[in-house]
Amino acid sequence: PRFYRGDLLFLTNPPGQRYHTGDITVYRIPGAEIPIVHRVLETRDVFIPFDYGEPHPKLKLPPGEHQLMLTKGDNNHVDDIDLYRGLEWLDRRHIIGKVRGFLPYIGYVTIAMNDFPQLKYALLRGLGLLAVIQRE
């Protein structure tokens, strides 16, 4: 894997940006709390005709052109279809962004504060004490 727990990821997701095989994306499946960072394995372009007038019954996509994606984790032997909770492909609405850079281990501060609430309160008390002492 390229990224580990605690790495801070920098993402981009401009509206006209296309995704290509090999891009590392961050996506969230409806109903899942934690986003997933996996590589694009395959893409497909589909056009939903406007004569439907409502979302396509199978893909649940509005009329128009859409890019669909299939992803896979670097350490996984199979694609992510089992993670999609009934979806066959990811659509643009599921993608949070494409990874453009990262800083290793920076996120451990946030993880530590969430895993150990006492640390968070101690840090807040310390900052409050500093604010009172440093007052001019």
Automatic annotation (TrEMBL):
GO terms for biological process: signal peptide processing. GO terms for cellular component: signal peptidase complex. It is found in: Endoplasmic reticulum membrane. It is a single-pass type II membrane protein. Signal peptide: none annotated. GO terms for molecular function: serine-type endopeptidase activity. Keywords: Endoplasmic reticulum, Signal-anchor, Transmembrane. Catalytic component of the signal peptidase complex (SPC) which catalyzes the cleavage of N-terminal signal sequences from nascent proteins as they are translocated into the lumen of the endoplasmic reticulum. Specifically cleaves N-terminal signal peptides that contain a hydrophobic alpha-helix (h-region) shorter than 18-20 amino acids. Component of the signal peptidase complex (SPC) composed of a catalytic subunit SEC11 and three accessory subunits SPC1, SPC2 and SPC3. The complex induces a local thinning of the ER membrane which is used to measure the length of the signal peptide (SP) h-region of protein substrates. This ensures the selectivity of the complex towards h-regions shorter than 18-20 amino acids. SPC associates with the translocon complex. This is Signal peptidase complex catalytic subunit SEC11. It comes from Suillus fuscotomentosus.
